[in-house]
Amino acid sequence: MSINTKIVNDLIANKISFVTTVPCKQLAGVIDEIDRSPDIFHIPSNKEDEGMGLCAGAWMGGKRPAIIMQNTALGVTLNTLATLIQYYRMPLPMLISYRGELREPVACQVEMAVHTKALLAQLNIPTYHFHKERDADELDAILKYTFMCNKPVAILTDASFWGGYGDQ
Amino acid sequence: MIRSEILREIAPILRDQLVICNIGLPSQELHMIDDQPTNFYMLGTMGLASSIGLGVALAQPKTVISIDGDGSVLTNLGTLPTIANNVADNFILLIIDNGSYGSTGDQPTYAGKKTSLTAVAKACGCENVVECRAEETGKVLQDAIDSKKMTIIVCKCESGNIKVPVITKDPVVIRDRFMTAVQS
Q: Which residues of A touch B51 (CB under 8 A)?
């Protein structure tokens, strides 16, 4: 089974049926699988804070949501994470492409990578870092944890996890 | 008519619907005029009332009305293409367009100058966009509910605020009673 299929299967097994995405090349395969899945309503967002608003609404409407995004957008979501997702205590799995890590070819991506974990830590967001493919074995448990505690939870997936940015 | 007068007039229509209300004075006014468990008050996060409302509408069958402002729509302008391309016929976006940032001291917005949110919504692909005068809001809103078609209403009104207390309800209480109302 491909890693993309494994990730989407874990989403479906955890009854996640509403996924919003802002694209990233590393996550393109996952996004394709989500788009094809009859079990998931896929709604692309124009911006990540907008996507979090959609997820907040979907959850209040009775569906389990998730967002797929790049770490470079973390900055634009800080207010939404603090004043919507955390303030109203809502669950939100954030599957994040961790650009700017080892095997990154684009220098500018490193500039947000160096702030990514610090920002997540500052917000007290539980954070998991997938570096090797077997790290994804924990995804099922991470998703269960997210909906148990009603918090945003970050899953950072770096270029090594994906087999090298652009090398897939 | 100013926003609080519109809210007072449409409160009997809103009472039976799920409502996502914009941050600041709009939520405070609605809370004071007719607090209902079916109202979700945004206490922060400017701009996301339409996104939250669309999310609720896509997730369940009851009618959802997002009460937004021109300034807040301008903050999250990307919401209009998302709404247009993900049609939820149980969703109504009511933009109370007073051409100003009411909650921060009535500074003018671009919607009060050259920019027409009605034209923007249409250009984004929204199919049922109705611009109305403040006095017509109740009828236009009721028609939108009855039509069972996703509708964007741009209600042109005067700017102005009334004195209103802040909402002191706990956010988790607001959210929990709203979710209970959704499921009832």
A: 50-54, 56-57
β-pairing verdict for A41-44 and B39-41: unpaired
What are the residue ranges of helices labelled H in chain B?
3-14, 25-34, 49-59, 70-75, 79-85, 117-123, 137-147, 171-183
End-to-end Cα, chain B, rounded Å: 35
- In angstroms, the separation between the Cα of residue A167 and the nearest Cα of chain B is 32
What per-residue string of b and e applies to A97-117 under the rule 16 or more CB within 10 Å gives b?
bbbbbeebeeeebeebbeebb
Q: Which of B44, B50, B175 sits opposite A83 (nearest CB)?
A: B44
Nearby residues of A36 by Cβ (< 8 Å), 6 or more positions away = none
Residue with tokens 């797929």: A68
State pTM to two decimals. Answer: 0.97
Q: What count of other Cβ atoms lies within 10 Å of the Cβ of residue B67?
A: 31
Interface touch A57/B54, C-beta < 8 Å: yes
Nearest to A72 by CA among A19, A130, A115: A115
Instruction: ipTM value, please give it.
Output: 0.97
Q: What is the pLDDT of residues B43-92, one digit of tens each?
A: 999 999 999 999 999 999 999 999 999 999 999 999 999 999 999 999 99
Q: Which two tokens stand for residue B146?
A: 């009855």
All domains of chain A, ordered by start, with CATH? 3-108+115-162 (3.40.50.970)
Q: How many CB pairs under 8 A join A and B?
A: 114
> Cβ contact (<8 Å) for A54 and B175?
no
